[in-house]
Amino acid sequence: MTGTKAGDVDTTVLNLNDVTFRRGETQILHGIDLSIGRGEHWVLIGPNGAGKSTILSFASAQVFPTSGTVDILGQRMGRVELQALRRHIGHVNPRHPLRSNLSVREVVLTGLTGTIERPFRWEPSPEEIAKAEGLIAEVGLSSRADAGWKILSQGERGRALVARALIADPQLLLFDEPNMLKGDTYRASYLQCTDFKLAA
Ligand SMILES: Nc1ncnc2c1ncn2[C@@H]1O[C@H](COP(=O)(O)OP(=O)(O)OP(=O)(O)O)[C@@H](O)[C@H]1O
């Protein structure tokens, strides 16, 4: 879909080649080719149920396609350790599947481990905590840093997820349903995203 050459690790951050996705008898995606180069900004637009979130689940190294290949940051899914790959991807997912009641600060810190839950025995460094606090302030959540996930509003969760997505200085930043972020938060996160991609 772009002029970027597939497999060009230096300039291609994401490459989907002839990807299909099937669940049961239902063919959800078929024959998807998508190549995204470093520094490019893309928007996926389509009707409800078209498969946008499913494509983002491949791009974020969360879900394997039924067939076809997915290369993320020069690494082929199925041939790399997914958690290591996820640490380089910022994914703002409105269906963030957190089960425990981590605080905002802890959720943001899971961006460093590439996990949903806080890993057993993992302790962030003082520098990492300071970075989390800075991002929490940037998304306007400082007064909620100790609040548990379960009591957060949808908008507050969205802000926390933006900070989580940015904390590891990702090489690939994905927003699912960015319209859940309103006003200044959205603008701030978008500017961060733009700065990052221009610098990459
Ligand atoms: N694991 C699954 N099992 C069965 N069906 C699935 C699964 N994952 C996705 N689907 C179906 O695939 C279709 C595409 O879903 P997806 O969430 O990717 O759409 P979308 O384009 O993001 O939609 P929306 O704009 O409504 O968020 C939907 O009909 C959904 O029900």
UniProtKB/TrEMBL annotation:
Question: What's an example GO cellular component term for this entry?
Answer: plasma membrane
> Could you tell me which residue ranges the ABC transporter domain spans?
14-200
Quick check: keyword 4Fe-4S in the entry?
no
Give the EC number(s) listed in the UniProt record.
3.6.3.34
Name any one Pfam family assigned in the record: ABC_tran
Task: List the membrane topology term(s).
Answer: Peripheral membrane protein
Kindly provide the name given to this protein in its UniProt entry: ABC transporter
* Lineage, uppermost ranks: Bacteria, Bacillati, Actinomycetota, Actinomycetes, Micrococcales
